């Protein structure tokens, strides 16, 4: 049952990430215009249970563009950063 719940939650996160990729913030749009041409970054990837704005799998680099939405989730962002640090990713 727990594995099924995890699969469902990840499917929902992937669907939400896909939706968010279609509705980027202005800051995300501007950064994407700079990094998209290399073809190594992807937008709104689910990584270790978190949705990151941009991700480069080749060098395990996650980029999070912290805007106003992050003002209300400082503790969550710290947990995310800790998770990425433990897994040798950078946020």
* Overall radius of gyration: 14 Å
Structural class: alpha+beta
Task: Please work out how many helical segments DSSP would assign.
Answer: 3
Low-confidence stretches: none
Mean pLDDT over the residues: 81
Largest sheet: 3 strands, antiparallel
Q: Approximately what portion of the residues adopt beta-strand conformation?
A: 15-25%
> What name does the CATH topology carry?
Endonuclease, Chain A
Order of helices and strands: HHEEEH
Shape: globular
CATH architecture type: 3-Layer(aba) Sandwich
Q: How many structural domains does the protein architecture include?
A: 1
By DSSP, the count of extended strands is 3
Which range best describes the helical content: under 10%, 10-25%, 25-40%, 40-55%, 55-70% or over 70%? 40-55%
| Spatial order of strands in the largest sheet | 1-2-3
The rounded distance between the terminal residues' Cα atoms is 32 Å
Describe the protein in words:
It is built from three helices and three strands. By secondary structure, the chain is an alpha+beta fold. The protein has one domain: Endonuclease, Chain A (3-Layer(aba) Sandwich), CATH 3.40.960. A three-stranded antiparallel sheet has the order 1-2-3. Strand 1 (42-47) and strand 2 form a beta hairpin. It starts with a helix and ends in a 5-residue tail after the last helix.
């Amino acid at each position: 049952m727990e594995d099924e719940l995890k699969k469902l939650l990840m499917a929902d996160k992937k669907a939400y990430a896909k939706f968010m990729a279609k509705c980027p913030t202005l800051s995300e749009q501007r950064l994407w215009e700079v990094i998209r041409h290399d073809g190594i970054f992807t937008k709104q990837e689910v990584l270790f249970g978190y949705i990151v704005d941009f991700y480069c799998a080749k060098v395990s680099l996650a980029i999070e563009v912290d805007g106003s939405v992050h003002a209300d989730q400082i503790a969550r962002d710290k947990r995310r950063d800790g998770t990425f640090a433990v897994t040798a990713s950078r946020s």
